[in-house]
Amino acid sequence: xxxxxxxxxxxxxxxxxxxxxRDEQLILPTNSSLSASLDQDxxxxxxxxxxxxxxxxxxxxLNGKEESIENPRIQNCLIEIRRRAxxxxxxxxxxxxxxxWSVHICxxxxxxxxxxxxSSAAGYACLVYTLSKLYDINGDVSDIARxxxxxxxxxxxxxxxxxxxxxxxxxxxxxxxxxxxxDHWPEMRVLVLVVSDxxxxxxxxxxxxxxxxxxxxxxxxxxxxxxxxxxxxIKAIEEKDYQKFAELTIKDSNQMHAVCLDTYxxxxxxxxxxxxxxxxxxxxxxxxxELKVAYTYDAGPNAVLYLLDEHVPDVVSLINxxxxxxxxxxxxxxxxxKVDFKTDISQELKDVVPLEPSPxxxxxxxxxxxxxxxxxxxxx
Length: 380
Ligand code: DP6
Hints:
36% of the residues lie in helices and 23% in strands. By secondary structure, the protein is an alpha+beta fold. Strand 13 (293-297) and strand 14 form a beta hairpin. It binds ligand DP6. Ligand DP6 binds at residues 14, 17-18, 27, 33, 120-121, 149-151, 204-205, 298-299. Ligand DP6 binds next to helix 3 and helix 5. Keywords: ATP-binding, Cholesterol biosynthesis, Cholesterol metabolism, Lipid biosynthesis, Lipid metabolism, Lyase, Nucleotide-binding, Steroid biosynthesis, Steroid metabolism, Sterol biosynthesis, Sterol metabolism. Residues 190-377 form the Mvd1 C-terminal domain.
């Protein structure tokens, strides 16, 4: 006797960044944030959770390797899931008995290992979503995913998703809400530029803790910038106003990284390639006379670009020209991208972007789009 559920969940990339906690235990943020969940074709987490009378204790496997289930963040999610499952009245005795059984959890990411995209967001969203299905919990579970990793709460939904800062001490209003459905802006594309890098970066958790403790600019951002910026961003998305969307996305990424620099001692996640990509994009946008592409960076050197589908070929040519792959192997360079590999750009563009090409500085490009929220897979 037992029961098993398998689900998948997307990664998400914020355009208004979460950076700072006001409560480390419950993972409550200092400001609201907004992201798009990405299509699960290329990047996703998959989790199978099983309960059985036969299992002796709770166990956890990550990418095929057993890990301790005592991890405090996993425990916080598991405890809250079981508490909520108990709260549901089960007249059916067989179901309430199930709550005392141990659980086995197997979680896998299909992120390219070298990509440095090992986002905990998809992992925790998937864990919590899967457990909620296993235990028949209805209603929003984003506040449970939030206890695993802040950004995970946004991966509980598809499309454009806001995580509201909330006011309550228990965090019940610090939850994810859909701003626009996955079908709302179908022209939107996402390019993930995986930057070559060996450095081990400060984790988001430690980085934002240091920022909260030492950066005055973080407080200024939370109080005086994000609230109005968030309203503008939601309006830009609702109206599909790409110019506004791109400007706010660029500014907010730069502001988060400015807060990191204002942290003492300073944190810098970008490297020379990251900065070169920024310069290239600003030069390109200027040459075009309007914003054709927006960049954003998380706690590492990889760039994520938000752009409209009609501009993908030009932007990919630009990337290929300034950041050609060392070995010129096209297939590995352009993952999942059905455009011709061409490195020729106009002489005009070469003149306005005053950069020397950097072969090998970008390992590869993942081309994707805004996608759906977690999915339940049929039982095998
Ligand atoms: C830079 O959600 O990874 O990606 O809550 O400590 O687990 P914890 O941090 P995490 O932080 C993500 C920060 C970010 C910006 C964002 O996704 O909003």
